[in-house]
Amino acid sequence: MTNEILLEDLYVGVLLTLIFLIVIRKYRVSIWFYITHSFLLSLIYVWYAYNLNNPMMYLWFFTTILSQVVLIPFAPGGLFYTVKKCNATEVRPILPFGVSLAFIALLAVGGWEFFHYIIAAVAPTPEAALEPARSNLAIAFTIFSLGLYTLLTRKDAVKTVLALCIMGNGIDVTLVDLTPAMAETAVLGILTDVILSVFILLYLSRRIYEKFGSLDTMKLSELKY
Predict the structure, then answer these.
(1) What is the tens place of the pLDDT at every residue in 163-173?
(2) 135: closest CA among 7, 1, 42?
């Protein structure tokens, strides 16, 4: 019971840090929330490693820490480097703050309940209907949905990169419950890390800023062949 409560606390922490990451319009604060979000997410792998006796999950934890908690934020060419290099403020999102916050909160809470309800249709296996797999899949789909929402409603290049990282995290958490007791699950999760894509996108973000003096992705429509 204590272990399951700990896992539920991790889920709550993952969602709360994700909400703050999306709505806050200060780059550095958002990045710190992303770091915290990724760290809490990686602890889910530790929980599964310990409770299912799958040592490969520990390796997945360490690679997640290395890539998402250390390299993506702090490495040369990473998030903090890009923010400092561009010295820009976040582009105003499509939806105003109040509307966006309400929609995100509704998506976080409603998504959790909704995916709990339809999990049998999404993952029709006996294992998926049981806890903690049911809750884990619900949180995975909710994370992915929030990442997709961010991608669709933010015009800012840095927030677009963060949105893709969030969606990648949702996919990784889904993998945990497909075959959690198999070492191959952790290997697959490690191999699907998006770190290379993130650094390419951050490089393109800096080039957008050099060209337009802004990180507004809508300005890409002004490019001419």
Answers:
(1) 999 998 888 88
(2) 7
